[in-house]
Design a protein that fits this description.
190 residues, mainly alpha, 7 helices, Ferritin-like, Ferritin, Hemerythrin HHE cation-binding protein, 83% helix
């Protein structure tokens, strides 16, 4: 059943879209900064691919904002978050692993924000779905990027901790699974 949004609801959705846009710009900035700071060619290539996707996804977000027909600014707390993360990404306070970890958390936040906007559109009906429907592709790509960043985190963390690359072969994955199962059975027993 389709419902009509009141002005307050439209403004709330416009604010979430503005947040989506602000974080998308931050993701792009992070990927540019990380790409130039990380010497590993494979990781840099992954980040460059994400950057291309995110630049394209910024256009999708901007189109959704235009189709909604109501604009808003990102809330002050989001603007402060963006500033803080930009300072961390360009500073020397965090290791490359920690910077990528922060970036992965932002990807999660972005995917969840997009998903929640989508859920609101499902409840309201076709008009809102038409405006934000293309965000589903952005949400999908953000989830895919999260998975890629988990692999990058494994590499950077292992290098940071022991100076070597992790075992990412089949046997290494089997050992990871056995370790996880041991943890499950250990917690059940205690």
């Amino acid at each position: 059943m389709a419902t009509t949004l009141n002005e307050t609801q439209l403004q709330a959705i416009a604010s979430r879209l503005a947040t989506l846009k602000a974080i998308q710009n931050l993701l792009i900035s992070n990927e540019q900064t990380l790409s130039s700071a990380i010497s590993d060619t494979d990781i840099r290539d992954r980040l460059q691919d994400m950057l291309k996707d995110d630049q394209k996804n910024l256009q999708v977000i901007e189109n959704s904002i235009a189709k909604l027909g109501v604009s808003a600014d990102a809330p002050e707390k989001v603007r402060k978050l963006v500033e803080t993360v930009q300072n961390l990404m360009t500073g020397n306070e965090l290791s490359p692993y920690e910077k990528v970890f922060e970036h992965e958390k932002l990807k999660h936040q972005q995917a969840m924000t997009g998903l929640l906007i989508h859920k609101a559109a499902q409840v309201v009906g076709e008009d809102l779905m038409e405006a934000i429907g293309p965000l589903n592709q952005v949400n999908f790509e953000n989830r895919a990027h999260q998975e890629q960043l988990k692999g990058v985190l494994e590499i950077l963390s292992t290098r940071e901790l022991v100076g070597r690359d992790p075992d990412q072969g089949v046997w290494g994955r089997v050992q990871d699974a056995v370790s996880a199962l041991s943890g499950v059975f250990g917690s059940v027993a205690s």
